[in-house]
Amino acid sequence: MSEVSYADEAKIAKLPKEGVHCFPANAKQISTRRIVTVILAIVFIGLALFSFLKKSPLYALGGISAVVAIISILVFIQTFLIANYRVAIDYNTKQLILRYRFSKILIPFESFDARDGEPDKAEELLDNSNLGGTEKTYYLVLDNVFDEACFQTSTKDLASRDDFFKLKEEAFAIADAYGARNDENAIKPDSMKATADESIKSEIKDDDIASIVEEAGAEIKEEKEEIKKAAAEKAEKAAEAVKDAAEEVAEKVEEAVEEKTEE
């Protein structure tokens, strides 16, 4: 982190001074996960017991079943954690808190950035299908600018769309106030890298373009001259071959005439 501060004190003063704002996960999503994980856990526990208790135990199948059952149980337990909050903004300690699996990820305001997110390929296909629902899904990236990992949430992940837009509003206000994205040591997202690349490309001068075109034209001209030279050489060789063949035929004709005359 740079020693230079990019914070805007006037904007920071407008942020809440204390309190914790919690944004719980989607209740429907939680219920679905609980039902699915309970069913999977029961099925794979039964399959694991069946595999291990046979006269000829199937250790591979039993082991895989046991692993799937454990994962299902862990996901079931996690649903109770994200029911309280999936994302929280703690204005007391000045940090954003994310629930990721069984860990809490803390992002200090001084390192935090927020921006609009985009769906991955699977989410995009789902959004474009009837299964995605009629309402548009919005995405929000919550990022620690000094860490390569970033986290994305959406209107589908949180309890309500109002919660999502409230989180977005507060996250953007914090990111704008603390200005972590402006730090020279901040890891730029791919979209910003692409913009930088485009700006570099736009700095190419007209003279450079003209020089490139001129060089390309000269190379093309040289290639044409070489092609013409090669074609001329081939034509000359072909002409010589025809001439030699004609002389040979003439000699044979002359010999044949002389033989006929002698007879």
Uncertain ranges: 198-204
User: Which strand order does the major sheet show?
Assistant: 1-2-3-4
The rough form would be described as flat
Q: Helix coverage percent of residues?
A: 55-70%
What structural class do the secondary elements suggest?
A: alpha+beta
Strand content: 5-15%
Instruction: Tell how many strands the DSSP assignment holds.
Output: 7
Overall radius of gyration: 38 Å
From N to C, what is the helix and strand string?
A: HEHHEEEEHEEHHH
Mean pLDDT over all positions: 80
Molecular structure report:
With 263 residues, this protein is α+β, with helices and mostly antiparallel strands. The protein has 2 domains: 9-199, no CATH class; 204-263. It is built from 7 helices and 7 strands. The protein has a 4-stranded antiparallel beta sheet with strand order 1-2-3-4. The longest helix has 57 residues, at 206-262. It is flat, with a radius of gyration of 38 Å. The protein starts with 8 loop residues before the first helix and ends with a helix.
Summarize, please.
The chain has helices at residues 9-13, 27-53, 59-84, 121-128, 161-178, 190-202, 206-262, and strands at 20-23, 87-90, 95-100, 103-108, 112-116, 139-144, 150-154.
